[in-house]
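Example: Hydrolase or metal-binding protein.
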Amino acid sequence: MLKGLALTPPIVGRISIGKVVEKDGLRLPEKDDEFTITTQVQNREGWVNHPLDKSLRKTPETKLRSIPIRLMFDDPDLSLRANYTLFDRKTGRQMCVGNGETCKRLTGEGLKTLPCPTPDACELAIGGHCKPYGRLNVRIGDEDELGSFIFRTTGYNSIRTLSTRLKYFHAVSGGLLSTLPLELRLRGKSTSQSYRTPIYYVDLTVRAGMTLPAAVAAAIAQRDEWKALGFDQAALDEASRKGFAAGVFEESAEEVEGVLEEFYPEPTNTSDTGQQPAKAATGLADKLADKVLATSSAGGGTTRGAP
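Written out as structure tokens, the predicted fold is:
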């Protein structure tokens, strides 16, 4: 087996609540108020929709705001991996991944394990390019029981809500996350930072029309049936755990370009993009950021690093 290669859950499609659009010659992310389920194939118009995207809508005009899913694993930390992540925009490589306590960082001397003070307190994270980054793998339908659809997000609301729900469902079901009948649900809220306009995030609930006790009973029944057939969920969780640990970082080189485009867009001076215009380095934070970049370029070390 290849060393240093993370063995991640096989992906058969994507779940998103936004898309990348072209404005003034630039490709920029644009948020949406519904889910879109796509394949892993792109054409000139963007990602090609998966057949499930159409079948889950009551009519072609219906907005898709809930998706019935099952989780692949009983361990909540296997289904949702979330950490602070910083990418090198020039090479597309992940430079630093941390959890708020420690981080793995690529330096001029190789990979190092260092303290992670979170982006707010790390000078290498100045500029906002180190963000919380979450990946959730789920199953939709029964077409491929070991294949998954991946939802990627850098939103605090989605990461915090999904993390909490997974811990709660794991507790009340006795650890039977993989057999619980669940659904992803899109929710909206307004805040002062959003100027009272709705922002959307992803929640995890039991299936519509089911109570929590009924969902737990269904999970127990499903687990008993699978056990009788010889299905070993604990072994699957362990194989996945070892697979994630086999690599330095989770994303492969071919996936990084799409992640950067969707979640780490370059700032522009175009006022209608929703981005803040670039500004001169006048404050201490800006000067530190410029110093880090200048030092990195001159010394041949990391272009950026962050927890």
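The chain has a mean pLDDT of 83.
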